[in-house]
Amino acid sequence: MLRIAVQKSGRLYDESLKLLKECGLHVDNGMDQLKAEVRNFPAEVYFLRNSDIPQYLEDGVVDIAIIGENVLSEKNANVYVLEKLGFSKCRLSIALPKNDEYIGIASLEGKKIATSYPNTLQKYLDEKQVTAEIHLISGSVEIAPNIGLADAICDLVSSGSTLFKNGLEEKDILFRSEACIAVNPTALEEKKDIIDEILFRVQSVLKARDHRYILFNIPNKQIKTVGKMLPVLKSPTVLPLLDEGWSSMHSVIHVDDFWKVIRGLKEHGAQGILVIPVENMVI
Predict the structure, then answer these.
(1) For 177-213, how does the pLDDT look when each residue is reduced to its tens digit (9 = 90+)?
(2) Which DSSP string do the residues of 130-197 spell out, in sequence order?
(3) Per-residue pLDDT tens for 85-127?
(4) pLDDT of 225-273, one tens digit each?
């Protein structure tokens, strides 16, 4: 039985359950449940406080977890990161009031910095050989400079809108973080087969999210030219149409290439272009 930890509430909760569902795991998670069985897979899901997950993972209470890299860094957990998941992206940054002079991290020498990430911040300051006074705050870090508690803050930043609303400006990025799958080292050995199966499914889902299936009609004389334009896995599928001189082409493209490819197809006479999401992708 594989024991999977996810955040019981917060920004990772919904995305974590969505990922498990897309991987074919049916989780019966009723209201306020701390543990739920997966109906169609030998696993159970533990709903835990985000800050507790690294310790439970390190101690072997759970085998794998969906968690932010920032939490693993702060707790300095002895675990392995198996896969980055591409969601809940953020950065841990230093921010100061907009009008304060800042010429680099040395500007914080002797200053007071408010943060919820004291260990990560202290490590960074040590690396930069800067001495500052760290004030630990568990929430609403961004108000600290406005009430005179600190000269600067070190906090997670996503869009930067919260900093803007509080008259702060991002100055330095300590590191970038996103959700990941972390695993207990012992579990990785003892439950390798089932963990490999989960990882295989996750990678298939993540790859599908970055691709789209397209099909379109194209004059036969343009097939070779268009075929060279398509960044496909191997080669596009070509099927003859009832109308003479025309064929239907099917392919898979990366979302980053989407508009460039669509424009190129139109320029070479493609018609009836359909774009379909890809649910899973196994290479």
Answers:
(1) 999 999 999 999 999 999 999 999 999 999 999 899 9
(2) ---EEEE-SS-GGGTGGGTS-SEEEEEESSSHHHHHTTEEEEEEEEEE-EEEEE-HHHHHHTHHHHHH
(3) 999 999 999 999 998 989 999 999 999 999 999 999 999 999 9
(4) 998 888 666 788 999 999 999 999 999 988 888 899 899 999 999 999 9
Instruction: Indicate the pTM of the whole model.
Output: 0.84
Domains detected in the chain = 2-88+178-207 (3.40.190.10), 90-177 (3.40.190.10), 211-277 (3.30.70.120)
Q: Are 2 and 195 in contact (CB under 8 A)?
A: yes
Q: How are strands ordered across the β-sheet holding 80-84? A: 35-37, 43-48, 2-7, 64-68, 179-183, 80-84
Residue 139's identity, in one-letter code, is: G
Contact, 277 vs 212, CB < 8 A? yes
- Rounded Cα gap, residues 24 and 83, in angstroms: 18
- Do the Cβ atoms of 145 and 102 come closer than 8 Å? no
What is the spatial distance between Cα 12 and Cα 116, in angstroms, rounded to a whole number? Answer: 18
CA nearest to 34, candidates 46, 49, 26: 46
> C-alpha 237: how far from its chain's center?
32
Residue 17, helix vs strand vs coil: helix
Beta-bridge partner residues of 183: 64, 80
Residue 227 belongs to what H/E stretch? helix 223-229
Tokens of 156: 């997670």
